[in-house]
Design a protein that fits this description.
The protein is α/β, with parallel strands linked by helices and about 210 residues long. It contains 5 helices and 12 strands. The chain has one domain: NAD(P)-binding Rossmann-like Domain (Rossmann fold, 3-Layer(aba) Sandwich), CATH 3.40.50. An 8-stranded mixed sheet has the order 3-2-1-4-5-8-12-10, with helices on both faces. Strands 6-7 form a two-stranded antiparallel sheet.
Length: about 210
């Protein structure tokens, strides 16, 4: 399968890129202008592009079967996440290209708080990360309002950290996954596994799913 990955040099993007290549897919890794793709000794084509530029987004949406976006803007530029998502949805409208969004957890419901959104629960969303949390919620709302793109929104658990690729995790939909010890967590490696599983065996077209232990 031909997979284009935006934000391929980010924390999640690098792991999604490696997982896709390890599974034998043809990958185009897209990085921000002025960035360099970390050396991974992997057969990947690298492109530089501005994910907030409509013309460049249109160019990136050609010649692929699936487009994955794993971009994370710098602090103070959280609005770029919403802008990029809107451009992608417009560029892919009524096409056969799937859109997989490695998104945020802010829009998940917290099960022990009468389904309060994680964004509004200080246990999981400190004030310091509220701007990116709000942007992720707006990003997800854009997807919910769209009926012309085969999108899938992937939400991590509350804690997303570098770790191991175990391939042992749970899948949920709109509710935050919490383990037996009360923790909500997932490794970036296993989130990449779940995302590639969805690419290869679609189950959540125009829906969201979440991943946790």
């Amino acid at each position: 399968m031909r997979i284009t990955i935006l934000g391929a040099n980010g924390n999640m993007g690098r792991r999604i890129t490696k997982e896709a290549i390890d599974r034998g897919h043809v990958v185009t890794a897209v990085v921000r202008h002025g960035s360099e793709m970390p050396a991974m000794d992997l057969p990947v084509k690298t492109l530089q592009a501005d994910a907030t530029d409509a013309d460049e987004i249109q160019r990136l949406c050609c010649n692929c079967d699936v487009l994955v976006t794993a971009t994370r803007p710098q602090a103070g530029h959280e609005h770029e996440l919403v802008k990029t998502t809107a451009l992608l949805l417009k560029a892919l409208a009524n096409s056969s290209i799937r859109l997989l969004i490695s998104g945020g957890a802010a829009s998940l419901q917290v099960p022990d708080r009468d389904n309060r959104l994680l964004l509004d629960d200080e246990r999981y969303m400190p004030r310091s990360v509220l701007p990116i949390g709000r942007a992720c919620l707006q990003q997800y709302e854009l997807c919910l309002a769209n009926e012309s793109v085969d999108w899938t929104y992937v939400s991590p658990s509350a804690l997303l950290v570098a770790g191991e690729r175990s391939s042992r995790f749970r899948i949920g939909t709109d509710e935050l996954l919490i383990d037996a010890t009360g923790r909500s967590h997932i490794s970036m490696e296993d989130l990449a596994v779940a995302l590639l599983d969805e690419i290869e065996t679609p189950r959540y077209i125009r829906r969201r799913f979440t991943v946790g232990y």
